[in-house]
Amino acid sequence: MRATDVILAGKVALVSGFGDVGKGCAQSLKALAASVIVTNIDPINALQAAIEDYEVTTLEEACKEGQVFVTTTGNKDIITGEHMQHMKEDSIVCNIGYFDTEIDVKWLEKNAVIKVNIDPQVDRYELKNGRHIISLCQGRLVNLGCATGLMSNTFTNQVLAQIELFTKPGKYPVGVHELPKILDEGVDTLNLYRLEVKLSKLTPQLAKYMHVPIEGLYKTDHNNY
What we know:
It comes from Henosepilachna vigintioctopunctata. Pathway: Amino-acid biosynthesis; L-homocysteine biosynthesis; L-homocysteine from S-adenosyl-L-homocysteine: step 1/1. There is one protein chain. An eight-stranded mixed beta sheet has the order 3-2-1-4-5-8-7-6, sandwiched between helices. It has helices at 20-31, 43-51, 59-62, 81-85, 105-111, 142-145, 152-167, 181-194, 204-210; strands at residues 12-16, 35-39, 55-56, 68-71, 91-95, 114-119, 122-126, 132-136. By secondary structure, it is of the alpha/beta class. The longest helix has 16 residues, at 152-167. The chain is elongated, with a radius of gyration of 21 Å. It contains nine helices and eight strands.
């Protein structure tokens, strides 16, 4: 919206992927009164989208209907040149799936008749069939390139991980480590505190029934982080 000033209400928006990022994008677009279509390769996520009343179909079908396209999969070659050739006039394509491999921008650069830079991070390509495609951020992260890039949870995770590594250097040998659950819960705890959310506490009886250790679970004191 900041990049193009387009009104999303009434537009047909396609979200590729219905994981954490895709769910948030679909909800945001739906809240702005867009008609949202979801594509997904995972049957569980596809069913979740269908249950939430989204139309779920293939990109090959939806590319002919959509006006705004958002890729969220973290995978590659999601929107190809073949898809873009079937899109409506001035369709907007962008990516929020963390990697710039989801939209085939190289195909656009190679096959477009004319490329016009409208604004920073906003390019309009004229295809050989006479239609135009508006590409945001050259396929890179649109929330960072075209907005303020609010990523509170992600950055809090990174800060807590850095503090953990700095204060406990002997605990983690050089390599790739999964973020400890206690730190992941720390991020949630900090956000819950700011939202003034009251969290129920797991009792020892329930912990025993669930076969999980109660120590370190669901810590509610935000001052510990």
